[in-house]
Amino acid sequence: MKLEAVETVRVPMPLVRPFRTSFGLQVARDVLLVHVRTDVGEGWGEAAAHAEPYYNEEFVDASQLVIERFLVPAIVARGDFHSSDLSEIFRRVKGYPAAKAGLEMALLDAELRAADERLVDALGGVRSAVAVGVSVGITSSIDELVATVDGYVGDGYQRVKLKIEPGFDIEVLTAVRAAFPDLALQVDANAAYTSSDLELLRRCDHFNLLMIEQPFAVDDLETHAILAASMATPICLDESIVSLAATRRALDAAACSIVNLKVGRLGGVLSAKAVHDFCFERGVATWCGGMLESGIGRATNVALAALPGCVYPGDISASERYFSQDVTEPFILENSTLAVPRGPGLGVTVDLEAIRTLGGISRKVF
């Protein structure tokens, strides 16, 4: 196909409730969408970077700049291309996985819609609905956290992930596990701990957790491996999994036994599938993480979570968990699952009126 037009669209989307992690507080998402027109049709994507470079090095302003100044011109210079060519086309630009993922998503959407093919089928998904959980941020008190978890359990979520940090961990887990003894529970540290916290983290074995996610720094595979070898609770890596090569290094180092897949962190859904396939071949469990995406990114996550190796509930959640108004039709929770969209491409319809109502600002790129 050939690229005919591109626009980036910034949409301020307030969160239903503030979401705090060890690296900061979010009260809204500065959503960056990519809208493309090709000679075979139109498509939409989402570059799921955060507003600040705290989760990783990338942030929304930089993502938009890289899309406009480097990635789009590289595609235009190529002329005819296929979605499978994008990784090679983008290779000269170092980093910026969310920017690459957003543009790839839009072009895949256009290509698959033209072929009347669903993303989930193109990826090799095996499920019509995917199990999902809910991620609960750090709260001002343990009582507030327990009440929040209770609300989500009442909504029908059967798996809950708690964000933790030093000083907000063991006491929190004690209270939540006492209130919900049978709940599927896991924790995510977002790299907040150091090697001096090994003994503290080993105490998490008492709480029957599904996993501990990314306790240490991105490049600290050694300490992850030490912890993994000394406790029963599985270790999952998130921020450390930036490529297929990084995944191979982590597994070879025995730094984890579970891998979190994120489209925006891995540079696109095709790269995320490659990591899934590698892990599947090695018998390593995967699951789909989330970046507080709109319905556009959520549709892609749901398709990825339908792959056979994604055996844990994804951090995808229903639309209402995050936004009172989304930019697509909402994803609705049913028995702790979300349905995989049935339409071609991403399978969702972008609501242009909702984008206008939310104050979206578009900028023509090409």
CATH C-level label of the largest domain: Alpha Beta
Q: Write the CATH architecture name of the largest domain.
A: Alpha-Beta Barrel
Could you name the ranges where pLDDT drops below 50 across 5 or more consecutive residues? none
What name does CATH use for the topology of the largest domain?
Answer: TIM Barrel
Q: Which class of secondary structure composition applies to the elements?
A: alpha/beta
- The main sheet orders its strands as 5-6-7-8-9-10-11
Please trace the helix and strand order, writing H or E for each element.
Answer: EEEHHHHEEHEHEHEHEHEHHEHEHE
How many separate structural domains?
2
How many helix segments?
A: 13
* Assembly type: single chain
Mean pLDDT: 96
Q: Note the main sheet.
A: 7 strands, parallel
Q: Please report the distance between the alpha carbons of the first and last residues.
A: 16 Å
Helix content: 25-40%
